[in-house]
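User: Fold both of these, please.

Assistant: Here is the first one.
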Amino acid sequence: MMPTQSSIPGVDALWPLCLDIVGQRRGSVAPQQRDARSPLAWDPSQGFALRGVWDDGAVELFELLKPVLDRPRGGRPWLIGQLGQSLDGCVATHGGDSNYVNGPEVLVHLHRLRALCDAVIVGAGTAAIDNPQLTTRHVAGSHPVRVLLDPELSLPSTLRAFTDGQAPTLLVSDASRAAEAEERVGADRVLGVPGLTGAEGVLDLHALTAALEAHGLRVLFVEGGGVTVSRFIAQGCLDRLHLSIAPVIIGAGRPGLQLPRSAAMRDCMRPSGRIFRMGADVLWDLDLRAVQPAAPRG
């Protein structure tokens, strides 16, 4: 008998399975035996796959999240970034207002990524302007560790991430300023990274990634803002990028991606990408480790 439309499982049935996968990766959920009746199959070379009949929304969501779900326990650090921007490439108005560039569907997706990753990273500028909670309040799932990059120690200790008690928070500074940072927010909330701040104040994000890995944080979500995401891409630290484009034109706002100039089109990055619709927005899922060759000249 063919299943009726009402009996076909959807996103509500899929999401708990995604959380179970993450729980197993973190060691908080016991590994499950997967047999022919399991809704998920695992192959060491292909990762997870859905079994059986699912509705279109669940299939699409699974395909979008599969790169995160496939991260092995104890594997190398793996980083995904997210950026929401306008049609003209801005993440906020000139004055910094970014609430909200994208629609509610992208906001839910953002919270799903937080739930699937060990830590969420934002730069000091985003933390100061948005005062974000960086929790998973719009979806089921555990809150990630909140990582605030603040090499200049400019953030006030009154930010919600330091005061709300909802999730662990780490303020990241160079190890040379760790003692000063500890006086501001407490020793248990400071991650002093040796060699974080290099020449001319450039952050060594490979050093940051290694320091987070030493804390058991391997699947990392770089949430913003545009400057921070751009720095991770420029230093080759980001594995994947979710770029959400909203049907809005801001005009002379704050730019999103800001990468070094390319001398010619053949030198530009052409990552492998997929497109997903999220309400009125379009999300590009970009694999930054799969860079395609430049298009041939006609």
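And the second sequence with its predicted structure:
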Amino acid sequence: MPTTLKITVETFPIAGKFVISRGAKTQAHVVTATLINDGKEGRGECVPYARYGESVDSVVAILEAQREAISAGLDRAALQERLPPGAARNALDCAFWDLEAKRSAEPAYRRAGFARLEPLITAYTLSVGSPEDMKSAALQAAGRPLLKVKLAGEGDEARLAAVREAAPRATLIVDANEAWRAETLAANLSACAHYGVALVEQPLPAGEDEILGEILHPVPICADESAHDAASLTVLKGRYDAVNIKLDKTGGLTEALIMAELAQKLGFGIMAGCMVGTSLAIAPAVLIGQIAAYVDLDGPLLLARDRTPGLTYEGSILAPPMPDLWG
């Protein structure tokens, strides 16, 4: 029986707004691929990201172009060669994983080589804003054990000071989203060390990060926009201490697992990350979270409304997905 494809575009409101150095948004636009075979359905969600030249329309067009191949028997292995890394492949790859699990009655995590899935402690993201606004947000989240602090360049030390004052016991990760420059790098890293930051994410623009291999790292530095798939890792050696693995960058769980294995062999720490999406997008990333030193899978916590059924969060503790959601 041939496999059929259904494509759905949905919009989920963000609670308040999500602000990083590149701008703000109040809605999460997601694309879901559903693969149907013999009464079983497998789903995968992706979040098109303009930073990587993607849009909802472009991702939908890529998915539409796969209908004939899917009907003719395209499988998850062949998909890796057919499409490049990115959001469209992620949606299909995760849908294949889910369909395989539903058809075999073997959970996706076992097919991926895990004996079981453990609950995870996820970071909770504080959007960039004025020091006063960020202090207020940090006060509300001060009971969470791990906070991810978005920064934007000028004025970042004041932002850090405000967040640290409001949340003195939380572990802090900061994410500059490429907003720092070489001339401010040393001062910003020094400020991060002073305020006890555990990890700095993507301080410099991708492609302009060579200097990271020439300086001391008073705080470990993690690649995000510079790290996409396994092939991108070798050049990052010596520049970064860790890599942020996101399924929308790798093009799905299949490549993410390969990337994680190579990252470990090369000596990188691993962060499991996400775009702002629903529980369906986060569920397969929970597998990467099992081998990550830092987990940043708070996408659904940032939404005003999530899918039903969704993932279960108790504070910052993320429970493994149930089969009716994914896997």
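The mean pLDDT is 96.
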